Hints:
13 helices
Amino acid sequence: MKIKDSYHTYAIITIIFWSLAFVLTRVGLHYFTAFPLAFLRFFFASLAIVVIALIKKMKWPQKSDIKWFVASGASGFFIYMILFNKACETVTAATGSVIVATVPVMTALFARFVYKEKLSAFQWSAIAIEFLGVVVLTLMNNAFSLNHGIIWLFIAAIFLSIYNLLQRKLTKTYSGLQASSFSILVGTLLLAIFLPSTVKEVQSVSPAPIIYAAILGVFSTAIAYATWAEAFKKAKKASSVSNYMFVTPFLTTILGLIIANEKPDAATYIGGGIILIGLFTFNFGERVFRKLKKEKPQDFL
Length: 301
């Protein structure tokens, strides 16, 4: 299978850009309040999408599917982004990514009932291992506290899970780029209620924070969500794609150290290692087990 035909490639690209988003959002909140930053991010994302749409001569969605794009844009971009940015005012980038990393569990459970998707015992075990890694990251140093930021993030995770299922539905008819682009445009229109406050705040900052918002919009939104939707289109199960979200805490911690000087602790390394083991188990564990089972004992001598 060619790299471009594998959902793994698209999922990995997304996770890298989303991990960057946790860090840049924390940085951006030093200059903007939560809601204007959300609108500014999607304003730049929409500009990028409009350019791409004109170049590719992207077709408009069918009237019967508009309701699904509205639902997708509202859940994945309007509601989720408000909750996410509000939560990031009180939690670190690493902690934020840890809570959102529960999305794969929610997505797998929702997909089980909505799309009747079944996971193997290996894959459910892998999800358990990955969730254990999340628990270690949050509880090892007794640093977990149920503040309002954590609550916002858990609610945000639910809406992102709903968005994942809606993208799974839309990519059965549309390309990943179309499914994400029209959803983002809907989200931007809804976030436009914060346009007045955004204009006011932009006037009082230097160019650097605006550049951060542009990076968030173009890379962590326009490109990332397009590759995410394409991953759903190419994968057989929604949970196979969403499972990659478990990696975000580890990557976010590394980027947080590089960009925001948020130093990781032992819990991050141990929890991150457990998560990576779970990710490997989910994607390759059953294949490796079957291969080893077929090998004769003397083959290992």
